Amino acid sequence: MQNDKEKRKSEFKRRLYNFVLKLIEFIDALAQDNVSRRIGDQLLRSGTGILGNYVEAQSSVSKREFVNYFNTSLRSTNESKMWIALLRDSKRAQPKSVQWFLDELGKFAKIFASSILTAKGKRTI
């Protein structure tokens, strides 16, 4: 059971890492106009923050610290969805190119929210 849990954690971390790599490529390919650069900068901060806070949560010394890092990852996930939607809706990115990111971010949000509830003892796995 513990081995399975560790495997899921490792797979999720790898999934987040690959997401960030694709996000970097996506941002790098945006037009170099002022708005795209500014939104791209914000998206890079929030998108990489998802992974960074997840990694920090794994070395938490308390449940409270773990929940705080996961809350920050969840907030960064939601912020990233907003920046990507703005790029799409302002016609700075093609709807097809952003859909995968929005889908992944939606799944990440559910995972973080569920984990937070479980850690707080408000939900069991």
Protein model, in words:
- The chain has 125 residues and is mostly helical.
- It has a single domain, classed as Up-down Bundle (de novo design (two linked rop proteins)), CATH 1.20.1440.
- Helices cover 83% and strands 0% of the residues.
- It contains 4 helices and no strands.
- It has helices at residues 2-28, 34-58, 63-89, 95-119.
- The chain is elongated and about 45 Å long.
- The two termini are 13 Å apart.
- The mean pLDDT is 95.
Draw up the topology in text.
Elements: H1 2-28, H2 34-58, H3 63-89, H4 95-119
Primary descriptors:
single chain, 125 residues, mainly alpha, de novo design (two linked rop proteins), elongated
Assess the beta-strand content as a share of residues: under 5%
Distance between the termini: 13 Å
Shape: elongated
What is the share of helical residues?
over 70%
Average pLDDT figure: 95
Determine the number of helices (DSSP H or I, runs of at least 4 residues): 4
| SS-derived structural category | mainly alpha
Number of spatially distinct domains: 1
Second rung of CATH, namely the architecture: Up-down Bundle
Based on DSSP secondary structure assignment, what is the total number of beta strands?
A: 0
